Structures are given as C-alpha cells and as structure tokens.
Amino acid sequence: MTTRWRLLGRLAWRESRTARRRLLLYMSSISLGVAALVAIDSFSGNVTRSIREQSRALLGGDLSWSSRQRFPASIDSLIDSLRVTGAPSARVTTFASMGVVPRTAGTRLVQVRAVSAGYPFYGEITTEPAGLWARLHDNANAMVDPTLLIALDAQIGDTLVLGFGRFRILGTLKNVPGDPGLAAVIGPRVYIPERFLPETQLLVFGSRAEYEVLFRVPEEVSPGKFVARLRPRLEAARIRARTVTENEMNLTEAIERMGDFLGIVGLVALLLGGIGVASGVHAFVAHKIDTVAILRCLGATSGQVLVVYVTQAAVMGLLGAAAGALLGIGIQFLLPHVIADFIPVDVAVRLEPAALGLGLLVGGWVALVFALRPLLALRSVSPLQALRRDADSTVLRMRWRDWPRLLVNVALVGSVLAIAVARIGALRDGAIMTLSIGVAIGILAASASLLSAVARRMLRRGWPYVVRQGVANLYRPANQTRAVVLALGFGTFLVTTLYQVQSNLVREFTIKTSASSGNLLFFDVQDDQALALDSMVRAAGHAVVQRTPIVTMRIASINGRATEALLKDSARATWPLRREYRSTYRDSMVHTETLAGGRWFRALGARRDSLGEVSVERDVARELRLRIGDLVTWDVQGVPVPTRVTSFREVDWARFEPNFFVVFSPDALTQAPRQFVLLTKVPDDLATARLQRRVVDRFPNVSSIDLSLIQGTLSGILRRVSVAVRFLALFSLAMGVPVLFSAVAATRRARVREGVLLKTLGATRRQIERILLAEYLLLGALGSMTGILLSFAAAWALMRWEFESAFVPAFPPAVLIGGLFMALTVVIGALSGRDVFRETPMAALREG
Amino acid sequence: MLVARQLTKEYRSGTHALTVLRDVTFEIPQGAFVAVVGPSGSGKTTLLGLLAGLDTPSRGTVILDGTDLADLDEDARARLRGEKVGFVFQSFQLIPTLTALENVQVPLELRGDDSASVRARDLLARVGLSDRIDHFPAQLSGGEQQRVALARAFVNAPRILFADEPTGNLDRATGARIVELLESLNHESGSTIILVTHDAALAARAARIIRLADGVVVSDSESQSDAASSAASDRDAVTAVGVAVDADPKL
Fold first, then answer.
1. End-to-end Cα separation, chain A, in angstroms
2. Are the beta carbons of A11 and B75 separated by less than 8 Å?
3. Residues B117, B101 contacting (CB under 8 angstroms)
4. Residue B27 or A37, more confident
5. In A472-599, where do the E strands start and end?
6. Are strands A662-664 and A639-651 parallel, antiparallel or unpaired?
7. Which residues of B touch A297 (CB under 8 A)?
8. How many beta carbons lie within 10 A of that of residue A522, not counting itself?
9. Peptide bond into A120 cis (omega under 30)
10. Cβ-proximal residues to A315 (8 Å cutoff; 6+ apart), any chain
C-alpha cells in the first residue's frame, strides 16, 4: 500500500514538471493574503510578548493606585505604613498646565508629571544627554519632550516656568516605558521632582489632575494578593488599583482586538486569493485533460488521478503560502517603524512560530479547498478522450448532485466561516461576514451572467467585425466572463471599500473641526477669575464664543438607590456610576446638541415640584438605564443635589467645543462651587501666542489649548492612518495581479487557438488586438463597476453600523481605483494574448 | 479471450437517436491477431472504446478475459485495463511531461509495482531506445514516440492489446518497422491484438479481419498472408465501401 502511495507521489512530482511554474503562479494568488495574516499576527504577537516582558516597566511598579482626587489622609497613612512593612512607593501627579520659557517668551500647554524619587521602580527612562534622569531630583529640574524645545524655541539650560514655579530644563526625554509618543499630542510632557510641586501653586480647587502611587512589593508577595484585602478600602476612597498583571491584560487585549480587526482585511485578502486559485486551477485542469485520459487508459482509477493532481496543488499551495509567509515576516519587521508611536511598548521584533505556522496552515488549506473544486472535475475525464477528444467544457462538465463536490462546497463555506469566527471572535458577526462575502460573490456572478445575456441580445450585425467578435466572446461557449468579473469585481470591491470608509472618516473629522466656532480654549478658570479673563479677551479684541461654568460631582443615588447598591446591579455599566462628572448648567441647548427624548427645562414655576432638572447624554443614559422622570441625586462636593431627568440629548462629541454628559437647569446649581472654561476665536498664531502669554502672566493656573495645534496633530495622525490604508489598498491591488492572471488563464488556451485560427483565415494583428481590447474593456468596465457599487453598499453598512455615521460616496477615488483595475485587466488580457502573435498558425493547428 | 455480444451504441441528441454501432457480435480467442477495418465513420473507434472498457455500450455485452465489463464500475474497469490491457494510439498519446522511461513505467507504477524501472528499461532496449530513455516526447521523432508507446503497451504483459491506427501518423517505412516490432513483441507475450485501421496492407498482416460499415459487421473472415489473399482483401474492402454507399443515400 505504502509503495503504491510512494509511486503515486513520484508520478505526481514527475508529471508536474513543466506545469510547476504555472501552477505556482496560480497558487501564489494566496501569497499576499498569507503575508497579511502572518504580518498582522506576528506583529500582534511581538507586541503582546513585549508587553508581557516589559509589563513591570510599563506600569513602573508592581502595583498602581490612582485617583482623580487627592488621596484622603487615611490612604496616605496606609501608604506610609506599607512602606515600613517593605513595600516602597513612588508618587506621580499628572496635570496640564501652561509652560512658559521667559527667554523666548514662548508659551505652550504641557503635561506636567511630578514624580517622587525612586520613580520608576522598573524600566529605564532614557534621556538626551544620556544618563541625566537620576539627576532630576537634585534640584528644581525639568526633563521635557524634545517637541517642547522646538515649540518654544528653547534649549537645554533654559528656565521653564510652570505656575509660580521655576525649573531648569536639564535635558530631553528619549523613551519613557509605558508612555507612547502619542501621549505628547495634547501637550509635550514635562517631568519635575514632586517636592517642587507646591511651588507651582497649580493644583488648586477643581484642577484636573491624576494622582498615582506606584509600589514595589517584595519578590515573594504576589501583587494581586497584596492588594486584595485592601480593595474595599480603596474602592470606598474611589481609588483604582491595578496590578502589573491587570495592566498587562488591558494592554494586550487592546492590541489583540486591533490585530483581529486587521485580520479581517487579511481574511478578505485570503479569499480573493482563493478565487484566484480556483480560476487558475480551472485553467490548469483544462490543460491536463489529455494526460488524465491517457492515465485512465493505462489503468489509473479516478481516485489515483485525483491524488496525483491534489498532491501537486497541495504542494504548490503550500509553497505559495510559504512565499506569502516570508513576505509577511518582511512586513512584520517594517511595521514597528511605521506605527511605533501608537504602541505603548518597545517592540522586540522576532519570529513568531505560532503566527507563521497558522498562516501557512490557513493559507495552504484555503488554497487547497479552493483548488479542489475545479480539480474534482478531473474525475469525470473519460479515457475515451484519448481516442476522440471533445471540447474542454464538455469533458469537464459536472453533475450537480455529486457528493464530493457538495462536500467540497460545504468545506469551503465552513472554512471561511470558521476563519471569520476565529478572527472576529463572535459566531454571529463571523456568520454575517461570511454571508456578506457570499452575497457579494453571488451578486458578482449574477452580474456576469447578466453581462453575457445583455451582450447576446445587444449584438448587432451592423457593428464593425472586431467589436462584434469581442462582444460575442463574452457569451460564447468557454467564455471567461464569470471568472474575470468575479476576480476583478472582488478586488475592486475590497480596495474601494477600504478607501470609502477611510475617506468618510477623514471627511467627517474635517467637517467637524472646521465647524468649531472657536479655536482657543481656556480651562481651569477659577470662579473669581472668569469675569476678569472674559474682559481681558475682549480687550484684546477677540470674541468670547462661550463661557461655560463647570461643576464637578458624582452620582449619589438613582431613584433612591445609593450608588454602592447600584454597583452591585449587574445590568448597569459601572463606569458611569463611578466616574466624576464635570457638568454645566444653562437654560438652552447649544448647536452641538439635539434633543433625543423628553422635553427641555421648564421654568421653575411651571414644575410640579422644586426639584432641579437635568438633561443626560443619550448613551450615558442608556448605560445607566435612566428613563425620563427618574430621580438622580448628585453628590456635589459633599452636598446632595436631587434632580429629575427631563430630557436626553444627542451630542456631537467630535467638535472641539466643551460638551457635557449632564446639563443642569440653571436653578439647580447656582450655589455650587464652580470653575469655568472659556472659548474664544483668535485670528492667527501670533495673536494666539500673545493672548496665551498675557493670560498665563496674570493667571498662572489657567491653561489654554490652541485647537488648531491639536487639529494639526490629529490631522497628522489621520494622514498616517490614510497612508496605512493606502498601503493596504496598494497591497490589495498588487494581490489582484496574480488573481487576474489566473482568471484570464482559464480561457487563455482557447483564446490563443482562436486567435491563431483567425490569423490563418487572414485576420491582421491589429484586428486581433482590437477584438481582445473590446472584450477586456467590457469585462474590466463591468467587473470594476459592480465592485464599486458593492463597495458603496459595504462602506455604507460599515459607516452606518460600525461607525454610526452617515455615508457619502467619494467618487473620484472610486473611479480612479475602478480605472486602475480596468487597465490592469486590459494589460493582463493583452499579455496573455501575445502568444497569438508569437505562434505560427501551423504550430497551433498541428497541436490539435 | 474477448467476446462481444450484440454490442450497440446509440447517441441521443434531443429527440434524435444516432446508432453508431449495431448488434456487433464476435469472439476472439486468446493470442489471436485481429484487424478491425472499415471506412471513416464506420464505428471502428467506438467499437475499440467499448471493447477496452473506455466506454459503456447502450446494449450488449463485452467479456474481456472472462470478466463481463458490465459488472464493473468505472474504476474497476480502469484497474482491469491496468492489469490486462495495453494501448497503442495513432497520435502516440505519451504524457508530455514524463520522459520516455517514465512514460513506460506508468502502468506498473499505478499498480504499485516497484520493479517498474527495470522492466521499462528492458522494453525500451527491445524497441531500440536505450539511449533515449531520458528524452521527453517532444524531443523524439514520431517513430520513436510510437516505439515508446509500444514499450508502454507491453510493459504490463497485457492479455489483450488494442492498437488504434498505430501507423496512421507515420511514413510507410517507419510504419512497417512499428508493425514488425508489434508482431515480434506479441510473439513473446502471447497477447491478443486488436488492430483498428483502414490501411488494407496493414490489416492483411492480421490472421482475421472484421469489416465494419455504418456500424454493422459486414464481414468477418480469415486473412491469408499471400498475394492472392491480399487481392481478396482488396475486393472485400470495395464491397465494404459498396455497403456503405447503399446505406447512406446522401453519399
């Protein structure tokens, strides 16, 4: 038995001799899909592994406690007592403030991180010049992001003023573990020693700051156990405790989710490859009819024939997948350079055998399953064909109710479903994805049939011969309409969908930012500073767009049930119950809001009771399971404020304007301690800088954000996202090449024979070229147009349900992509037809 | 022993039924050399396909070396061919991607016979192609290709060998050499040979000639290898054509 298998394997190897290159080309349709999968999985594996290895450095300690408020005295003394028992701690206080360099008179919003000596316990903060981190605490020093020096035209050694404190810039930061470069978008980072923090006088009432304590626990103690018994006390003080393991899990989860999303692109790429394989193998099969007929005459069973060719396809599929895997490894090594800023960890690039193996396995399998469909047709090749040869399509005709064929179809759909579910992680979404792909393929196949039917009907005798011949090629026996339209349409569909979604997201962002009515936002403005700041801005000749009071608060109870009790109620999300709300009050809605339920505030006299009224943002209301008429009592800095929910609002968060989860009726909060934010419109950079400097001189605690600066930075990020999408699109386009080659190959032989016959009958080279051009132009136009229409539908669906936003088709890129694919089709068609001119009529006719 | 009983083959195209072979019956004893002759379209190739189990008859029986082909499915027939049948075709039908040696080995390898290489080399030597064993079909002349095909046909020591116009694509001299080779190989192996041809001279080398016209056996006679019998066979050929003319009023 084994001898028989060995001999069959040997026959498969020998028989493949001249067809290996061609078969490999068809099977290489799978390569780019595999490359995408391997690159994505390997990179995501690299990142999560790096996170695991650097997890302590990323957190800075074994355990972190953090809060939006200063720790209460009881917790402070707990921290002190823990230190005595062998768990040293370090503090980090993070807040935004204006940084001023007096020498250059430059101002810029910065993120201050006041750290105590000992921070960080793990990992190393690298600086330029090197090794200066240890000297930070020697004096009132500051270590800053290099971008700050550029923004303020400053240099090392300059004085940096933060509030009332003065610091000497000691050096710049090169790398801070766990703090990706992207964090500097809102403002460059400035590290100062904690003991000089009071000198700045910046942390006043209502200032937004994050207080964190990091611990190093003894080796033998598990951070989880260490914190477990303290959790109730910490929760009571609204302090969040994170162990190094929890932090690691959060980070890796995010990375894995990103990997899964990108993996879907990889999956679609793989399927496109599968279609390429199927049509390529179809061509290959037609080529092998003669050999199979001979083998059958010589005693080969249909099973043996199948073994020979499935072996060939499997080996070549595996080679194609291997080539893809190698390419994927190459991309994996490039990726960290492209997206380093988005990743919170130094990525150590190395081979990920699991990702590599999985890519090979999945790629090889998909190639094989897609190849099996056409290969099965070889079973029906009769030995009689060695005596008398029929047309390819007659020889390879298959019965509908052929169980191996049905089995392969089931395996095909099952494989796609399994991969989709594994990638997306949810059965329902995976099934929807599989179904959508099925529908897309169905529509493409239907439109191909439609094209054939229309071509048959439309054809007129009066047309020039070459056009008639070209159009007739679309419906004559052994036409390639379906194969090409499917491959081309699917490729266009994939690339255009990517582009449409990207351009819609970018468009939305651009519209929203440009719609903002102000461009300079002052915040942390104290109650007694608000009027003075207002007149200062006006005196400088600028308009005050908005002056908004802000009151900080938490939810105390809903309909009489205390927050603690509600937290145990699993039906509600916990984050909106725990969070600190920064709310405002006003008597009307602003233009970023629309009423989504209930009615706006009534005048005090028109209410049933004297309760204040609140309007809650729709999504938070949903998370809190609030209904119109519910009673919510707020803890406004110790004072309970009961209110009634009278409306829900939909808020356009994407605009750079102060927006709020909760808006109060003015009467409800007039007595509460408050702060202000003030939005102004300043014409240019110079005026902005001047106003910022004057404000910071007078009110050092007031910070300001130049929104155009943020817009610029965010646009920069979006540009990089766009580049990434373009890369993906280009990748898919490149993938279209082997796939289209395979599709065209399916009928290439018949085409060439026919061309040569025409030549024999007196057709000129030009005429044959025109016939080919007419056919491929039509195929290209229909395939890409159907693909574009499908992509509009897909992009609409994605925008509607995934990004919850409107879809506006972007025509120019769609037309461009469609045109590119069409050109590709014509070029590939012409290339495959060039044999017509190479072969002499005699050679083709002799071949039979 | 090869038996055909009332072999009929019809092709159906829409409502029309086309009978290409009708009630063909004969018996061929083991070791016989039989020629099947007839004009183009007389059903020779169809008959060959049915006898070799390449196709199934609409009615009738074929018993090949004691096995009724109707009892076998497609794959079982293939196995039977692998064990007991050899083929020589007009257009050689070598597998273009295999060398001469590999082509000859195929029938044995399909049976899982590990000695294929030794036996194939031996046969290629017998047909005079020892120095061409690593050549691909495209590198061989027509005569050489047919010699490879002969070696392949005999490699599994077939009980019965079908030859479909084996000299049709060759010049007369080369064709004659191929036939001599065929006879000499057969002499050693004792196979039954069914030779399909419309070459009267070639057919005359057979011991028995079955003439087909329009799907019907019009004569089944012993052949004599002297000149007189050659003349007789020519007359027979004329008769056969006459029958064909009568049968088709369009001619």
1. 38
2. no
3. yes
4. B27
5. 520-526, 543-558, 561-562, 581-585, 593-598
6. unpaired
7. 52, 54, 81, 87, 93
8. 27
9. yes
10. none
Q: Which residue of B has its CA nearest to A846?
A: B91
Q: CA–CA separation, B131 vs B124, rounded Å?
A: 9
Chain B: nearest CA to A19, how far in angstroms? 8
- Distance of residue A322 Cα from the nearest chain B Cα, in angstroms: 25
Token pair listed for B181: 């080779």
Across the range B218-223, mean pLDDT stands at 87
Which among A634, A677, A673 has a CA at the least distance from the CA of A657?
A: A677
Within 10 angstroms of residue B93's Cβ, the number of other Cβ atoms is 24
How far apart are the two ends of chain B, measured CA to CA in Å? 37
List, for chain A, all residue ranges whose pLDDT scores fall below the cut of 70: 1, 180-186, 205-206, 257-258, 261, 339-344, 393, 400, 478, 508-516, 570, 654-656, 713-714, 717, 746, 839-848
Predicted pLDDT of residue A205: 66
Examine the predicted complex and report whether its ipTM is higher than 0.90.
no
Q: Are A187 and A145 contacting, i.e. CB atoms less than 8 angstroms apart?
A: no
- Residues A793-824: tens digit of each pLDDT: 888 887 887 777 778 888 888 898 889 888 98
Which tokens in the block code for residue A454?
Answer: 């229309």
Rounded Cα–Cα distance for residues A334 and A349 (Å): 9
Write the CA distances from A499 to A435, A502, A643, A809, B241, integer angstroms: 22, 5, 47, 10, 73
d(CA A731, CA A31): 11
- What pLDDT is stored for residue A137 in this prediction? 93
A385-399, A452-466, B159-173, B191-205: which has the minimum mean pLDDT?
A385-399
For A295, the closest of B52, B83, B106 (CB atoms) is B106
**The amino acid at A247:** N
Q: In a 10 Å sphere around its CB, with 0-12 CB exposed, 13-18 middle and 19+ buried, how is residue A686 labelled?
A: exposed
Q: What is the length of chain A?
A: 848
B140 CB contacts (<8 Å, ≥6 apart)? B100, B132, B148
Nearest to B95 among A8, A15, A383 (CB): A15
The per-residue pLDDT for A654 is: 65
Is residue B158's pLDDT more than 50? yes
Determine whether the interchain pair A301/B78 forms a contact, defined as Cβ–Cβ distance below 8 Å.
yes
Spatial CB neighbours of A843, under 8 Å, sequence gap ≥ 6: none
Q: What is the 3-state secondary structure (H, E, C) of A36-59?
A: HHHHHHHHHHHHHHHHHHCHHHHH
Distance from CA of B228 to the nearest CA of A (A): 34
Q: How many CA atoms lie within 13 A of A159 on its CB side?
A: 8
- pLDDT one-digit tens code per residue, A23-59: 888 888 888 889 888 888 888 888 888 888 888 888 8
Residue B226: band (very low, low, confident or very high) from pLDDT cuts 50, 70, 90: very low
pLDDT at site A570: 67
User: The whole model's pTM is what?
Assistant: 0.71
Inter-chain touch A387–B49, beta carbons under 8 Å? yes
Per-residue pLDDT at A764: 78
Q: Shortest CA distance to A412 belongs to which of A458, A371, A359? A: A371
Name the residue with tokens 């590999």. B102
Residue-wise pLDDT tens digits, A588-621: 888 888 998 899 988 877 777 778 899 999 988 9
Cα–Cα nearest to B117, from B127, B95, B130, B102: B102
B176-195 mean pLDDT: 87
Q: What burial class does residue A534 get, using C-beta atoms within 10 Å of its C-beta: 0-12 exposed, 13-18 middle, 19+ buried?
A: middle
Alpha-carbon distance A44 to nearest alpha carbon in chain B (angstroms):
45
